[in-house]
Amino acid sequence: MACELRKPLIVHEKEAQDDLIKILDEFGNRLPPVVIHSFTGSVEQGIKYIEKGFYLGITGYICKDKSDGGIRRLLSERILPLDKLLVETDSPFMYPNMRASKLPLHVKDSLTERSMNFVNRYCTFQRNEPCALPAIVELIAGFLGQRPEDVALATAFNALKLFGLSQ
């Protein structure tokens, strides 16, 4: 089991939260840290995961979320604490379309020319690539109203801690 290996349990859940929580609850406190990979759920779903101490992985989906009650709200209302946030690419999926019409202007304005150039130059055929991570960090920071450097530092620390890379 992942606990014995001292590694996190990474779960990709789509429209099956109730079943997933029921299954994970059977293991109680024997679970290692849990990461909800490529979270695309609602605020209510995010809160359930956060209350259980799970990490939420945020990808380029942040550009695609057009709901009023999804990941953008979790970030803009600061419901998702930085210490439970991971930045992911979900490569080659979830391309961060920074020109998306539904992105608020203050978020678009938080993007640097450098990160936009990386995405435009290296994410060919609208494939998400690891070089898109700075843009995803900047998008998250824009929704949080924080500096990208602070988000990058916090999420890097989370990853180091979670994967036991700081030892």
Supply the key terms.
167 residues, alpha/beta, four-stranded parallel sheet, 4 strands, 41% helix
Helix content: 40-55%
How many helices? The count is: 8
Q: Which class of secondary structure composition applies to the elements?
A: alpha/beta
Fraction of residues in β-strands:
5-15%
> Outline, from the CA principal axes?
globular
Order of helices and strands: HEHEHEHEHHHH
Instruction: Please identify the oligomeric state.
Output: single chain
How would you sum up the major sheet? Answer: 4 strands, parallel
Cα(first) to Cα(last) distance is 21 Å
Low-confidence stretches: none
Kindly state the mean pLDDT as a whole number?
Answer: 88
Rg over CA atoms, rounded to whole Å, is 16 Å
Description:
By secondary structure, the protein is of the alpha/beta class. Helix content is 41%, strand content 8%. It contains 8 helices and 4 strands. It has helices at 2-5, 17-25, 43-51, 71-76, 105-108, 113-122, 133-144, 148-162; strands at 9-11, 34-36, 55-58, 85-87. A 4-stranded parallel beta sheet has the order 1-2-3-4. Helix 6 packs across helix 7 (133-144) and helix 7 (133-144) crosses helix 8 (148-162). The chain is globular and about 45 Å long. The model has no long low-confidence stretch (mean pLDDT 88).
Please outline what is shown here.
The chain has 167 residues and is an alpha/beta fold. It has helices at 2-5, 17-25, 43-51, 71-76, 105-108, 113-122, 133-144, 148-162; strands at residues 9-11, 34-36, 55-58, 85-87. Helix 6 (113-122) crosses helix 7 and helix 7 (133-144) packs across helix 8 (148-162).
